[in-house]
Amino acid sequence: MMTTLFFALGIVALIAGAEALVRGASKLALSFGISPLVVGLTIVAFGTSSPELAVSVQSAWNGQTDMAVANVVGSNILNVLLILGLSALITPLLVDRQLIRQEVPIMIGVTLLFTVLTLDGGISRGEGMLFVALLIVYTAFLIVQSRRQSREQQDDYAPGGDSEQSTWDAKLPAQLALMAGGLVLLVLGSNLMVDAAIVFARHVGISEAVIGLTVVAAGTSLPEIAASITAALRGQRDIAVGNVVGSNIFNILCALGVSAIFAPTELLLAPSMLSFDIPVMAVVAIACLPIFMTGNLIARWEGALFFAYYVAYTLYLVLAASEHDALGDYRFAMGTIALPLTAITLALITFRHLRRPRALP
Predict the structure, then answer these.
(1) How far apart, in whole angstroms, are the C-alpha atoms of residue 198 and residue 215?
(2) Do 327 and 319 form a contact (C-beta atoms < 8 A)?
(3) Of 55, 245, 285, 361, which alpha carbon lies 20 to 30 A from 307's?
(4) Can you tell me the distance from the alpha carbon of 120 to that of 124, in angstroms, rounded to the nearest whole number?
(5) Which of 121, 134, 351 is nearest to 254 (CA)?
(6) CA–CA distance, 223 with 183 (Å, rounded to integer)
(7) Dihedral angle, C-alpha 66, 225, 158, 294, nearest 10 °
(8) Which residues lie across from 297 on neighbouring strands?
(9) pLDDT exceeds 90 at position 131
(10) pLDDT tens-digit map of 324-359
(11) Which H or E run contains 144?
């Protein structure tokens, strides 16, 4: 009963925290002349990724290197497939051109860098320092770039409705209080739900490895889920998509970077993660580019495709962990039917976009 109560309290805290964070972030963007896209890529993304940072650093410090890395890898896969999938199912998401031209390629580059650095079986302290240095440079670049935007460009980002009116949250202290309170509630809610979910998972006999890639990863991503879905419902499309892209960049550069710095030893990775989960994360990141390019829109059918693949990925992890008899047939169906069809679809989407005549300036 107490576990169920904590789970319910976690849901309430997440909903309230997401609403406060998104409202405060969008108002702060207007107050400082910074686009909501940059706020989503930095403040919201970094704030909602704080559970990943806390869990990965604590796990690395305790010598649980598999959990430290699995949490980030699982969260990045979930961010794209589940969060963007659900958000696009709620309402088609318009994708800002800056995301397509700059942020998504950066996310892909960071993901591929991480993939290459793990080929030796782990992440060293020096590589962790490299990640943190890249995060500092990236964040500073975003802020400087946004401040240089023209006022007309910033007005294009401005949300409609009462956001332009003089309200109680038009003042800086109220905006900072909303964001701080929202982050506290998001972290508190996610912790309550993670603890409850782990109890449920262990009760039904799910292994620690699967818990790390699914339950813990999903639990630490609950702030991103709540923030992006709330932003989509409120029409804050730049925050909804920017939060996911920024969180994926933050998870690798900060959560893994700091974990590698403070870990007593090198972050060693399990062979299964090197051969399956990390390649899946890289493919998912790369798949964002052709889907985002199609009309600068994530359509509902594309959101459904993302969501379906997350369900398929999770099912594979459960079958593999339990060594179920159906694993061989499932792997064959995914490898010979589902994945090739998806690759062909993405290739056709990219080809049609490149062949499309460009509008005259």
Answers:
(1) 7
(2) yes
(3) 55
(4) 10
(5) 134
(6) 8
(7) 80
(8) 94
(9) yes
(10) 788 888 877 877 777 777 777 777 767 766 666 554
(11) helix 125-147
Phi, psi of 116 (to 5 degrees): -65, -40
H/E segment holding residue 65: helix 65-78
**Given the DSSP bridges, would you call strands 93-94 and 297-298 parallel, antiparallel or unpaired?**
antiparallel
Q: Where are the domains of the chain?
A: 2-154+179-355
For helices 222-233 and 237-250, the axis angle rounded to 10 degrees is: 160
Q: What are 190-228's pLDDT values in tens digits?
A: 677 667 766 766 676 666 556 666 777 777 677 777 777
Burial 230-263 (b: 16+ CB within 10 A, else e): bbbebebbbbbbbbbbbbbbbbbbbbbbbbbbeb
Question: Alpha-carbon distance 265 to 268, whole Å?
Answer: 8
* CA gap 104, 124 in Å, rounded: 26
Contact 81, 284 (CB under 8 A): yes
The separation between CA 355 and the C-alpha centre of its own chain, rounded to angstroms, equals 31
For residues 129 and 262, is the Cβ–Cβ distance under 8 A?
no
Phi, psi of 320, rounded to the nearest 5 degrees: -65, -40
Residue 158 carries which DSSP code?
Answer: -
| Matching residue, tokens 């962790």 | 128
CB-count burial class (<10 Å; 0-12, 13-18, 19+) for 5: exposed
Q: Which two tokens stand for residue 170?
A: 């038009």
- Please give the Cα distance from 23 to 213 (Å, whole number): 31
Which amino acid appears at position 237 of this protein? Answer: R
> Which CATH number is correct for 2-154+179-355, 3.30.360.10, 1.20.1420.30, 3.40.190.10, 3.30.450.20?
1.20.1420.30
Give the E-state strand segments of 153-245 in sequence order: none
